[in-house]
Amino acid sequence: MTRPVLNEVLETPYTDEFDVVVAGGGASGLMAAVSASRMGARTLLIEHANCLGGTGTYGMVAQWIGFYNRATRVVGGMAGELADRVVALNGSEGFRQYLMAEASEQPIPIVHFAFNPEIVKIAADALAASAGLAVRFHTRVVAPVVGGQRVTGVVVEDIAGRSAIRARVVVDATGDAAVAWGAGAAMAPSELTTAAHVQPCTLMFRLSNVDVARFRAIPRETKRALALQGIREGRIFWESLSFCSTPGNTDAICLMSRVSGVDATHAADLSRAEVEGRQQIASILAFLQEAVPGFEKATLAAIAGHIGVRETRRIAGRYTLTEEDILSFKRFPDSIALGAGPMDIHETGGTGISLHVPAQPFEIPMRCLQPASVAGLVVTGRAISATRHANGGARHMATAMALGEAAGVMAALEAASGQSPGADAVRGALRARGGLVSTDDATETFASH
């Protein structure tokens, strides 16, 4: 079917110029922008929402995982600085042991950092301000500016209209590789056949008036039986009664919905997912109130501003990280970040989850952040070059923050020299800040509280 075409002639004014422009202010984009600015690059961070932090704030996934592989610390640097800021603002009780997916068939113990998303918004603003970078909210990157296979800026739209911004280097932290896609960068070959096989989405929600201690005291076997009961009755949607609480332990920020068959690169699918997610939340809340101890008086306090998306586009980079690389603990001379896992794949169209924590940290090479076919662009976050299963282990927010800090260093060095930086320079800059870039750096162990 041939669709009609609207031919437009646009004259878009250039309104500014920066050394580095970062598209997307989530966990990875925030770190990329602060990192580049601290390297001396004039930096702009562009975010379509009203806050920084992405999935952890307006997405309301109120825990960072990936700081630790089992008991070994694998992420430091600016991510650790942000965590410290959140604790100082009484937004978290710090790192704690946590049983992930407790009601699933095979839960796993991890170390996580639970937090109040509203406090993280404040801490993220302060971190950005400390670096002196420019931040623009309510602004969407709609296209890259490309010349001769090089990205030279971005086109944005905001309440004032459409404009263009020049950049020596652009960092794509959109999560969906939106800038790379628009620039014609090669994408990773699809390992899936249809949207029905993409990992499901989750819409987070927050409950008040929860007796958290009473729920935590329930034996795990009973929690699993309750989850399976809810699934049989069609009232909950996967094997999860998982939630985090903010300091004070009177609320529950719940990871319990599951919306399958969503291609999150299409607005119609995303729109359907948001509506279905809210309908699921109503059902889940009623089940919790009626059947689960500790939730009898729970009330719905908030629903996340954006459904959580696990899987869309990934670039084809100069190197593609694989599951075999992770499980064999392959070493890379250009490693710039460490991953912790778990290898986290949510069952498509079903109610289960596959979880596996690698026995050791794994290295992520710089080449995974570099598109194979487009210059002037660094990609960070869950859109790096990785296979589906490797991405399941590398997309956690602490890992994304480490990748973002590396991306910022890479972008700043390239903006200053006009050439793609060497790995030694990037690794040296990261280590000077306390970054952990290879398994040789991962020596700190978790001390239980």
TrEMBL record:
It holds the Pfam family FAD_oxidored. GO terms for molecular function: 4 iron, 4 sulfur cluster binding; metal ion binding; oxidoreductase activity. Keywords: 4Fe-4S, Iron, Iron-sulfur, Metal-binding, Oxidoreductase. InterPro entries: FAD/NAD-bd_sf, HdrA-like. It comes from the Bacteria. The keyword Transport does not apply. Transmembrane segments: none annotated. PANTHER family: COB--COM HETERODISULFIDE REDUCTASE IRON-SULFUR SUBUNIT A (PTHR43498:SF1), FERREDOXIN:COB-COM HETERODISULFIDE REDUCTASE SUBUNIT A (PTHR43498). This is Fad dependent oxidoreductase. The lineage of its organism: Bacteria, Pseudomonadati, Pseudomonadota, Betaproteobacteria, Burkholderiales.
